[in-house]
Automatic annotation (TrEMBL):
HAMAP family: RNase_P_3 (MF_00756). Consists of a catalytic RNA component and at least 4-5 protein subunits. The lineage of its organism: Archaea, Methanobacteriati, Methanobacteriota, Thermococci, Thermococcales. This is Ribonuclease P protein component 3. One of its GO terms (molecular function) is ribonuclease P activity. It is found in: Cytoplasm. It comes from Thermococcus cleftensis (strain DSM 27260 / KACC 17922 / CL1). Belongs to the eukaryotic/archaeal RNase P protein component 3 family. Keywords: Cytoplasm, Endonuclease, Hydrolase, Nuclease, tRNA processing. It holds the Pfam family RNase_P_p30. Part of ribonuclease P, a protein complex that generates mature tRNA molecules by cleaving their 5'-ends.
Length: 214
């Protein structure tokens, strides 16, 4: 669902029917919009499905990107609590790893309600686990499990992803489903997080949320 290099994309295509090539965009100020649009156009020609991962500590830059017609899925890298909340409120396509670099999950009941209302998916990313030491890995899994409890409770859209930046970080569907099970998902929930919810995002389906249930 989210790979960030050509070699990772080519390997992921062997395992997955739908793979999104993600351009990582680190922002401290407004980018050159003309250059960015042209780069995304070339990426769409090459890969088809394209996402833009915004990495920033300035929430206002998320709004700028969101308001541009970039013809790409808009992901936000989580971590900063202001960024986490603003990303959800602005209705981006996904908030990935809201716990990254934190000493807590970075996701609470308030944010879960916002995510459900706005239809913003939470991405559970494997890559940070691969780069972490044993202590950090335990902490990350604990934060992911706590976030999953809220995602399940409020029926927030979600997906499991490798977020691979090299071919060495690409993992098979079975490995990603194992991640889901390790953080508390039942097998059908892990399967839906790998297939149904990502496809719903790609095809623009309206995924049921807590606010739309009767």
């Amino acid at each position: 669902m989210d790979v960030r290099s050509e070699e990772a994309y080519e390997l992921a295509k062997e395992w997955f029917d739908e793979v999104v090539f993600t351009k990582k965009l680190v922002l401290e100020s407004s980018p050159n919009w003309g250059e960015l649009k042209e780069e995304l156009r070339l990426l769409r020609e090459r890969y088809g499905r394209v996402a833009l991962l915004i990495v920033t500590k300035k929430p206002s830059l998320i709004r700028e990107v969101k308001n541009r017609n970039l013809k790409a899925l808009i992901y936000v890298q989580g971590g900063d609590m202001r960024v986490n909340r603003f990303a959800l409120e602005s209705g981006v396509d996904a908030l990935i790893s809201p716990w990254l670099g934190r000493k807590d999950p970075g996701f609470d009941h308030v944010l879960a309600r916002i995510a459900a209302k706005r239809g913003v998916a939470v991405g559970f990313s494997l890559a940070p686990l691969l780069r972490a030491n044993p202590y950090e890995r335990v902490q990350l899994l604990r934060f992911m499990a706590k976030t999953w409890e809220l995602v399940r409770k409020y029926r927030v859209p979600r997906f499991l992803t490798s977020s691979a930046e090299s071919k060495w970080e690409v993992r098979s569907p079975r490995d990603l489903m194992s991640l889901g099970i390790n953080i508390g998902m039942e097998l059908p929930e892990a399967r839906a997080s790998l297939h149904f919810y990502p496809i719903a995002m790609l095809e623009g389906f309206t995924v049921p949320t807590a606010t739309s249930r009767t």
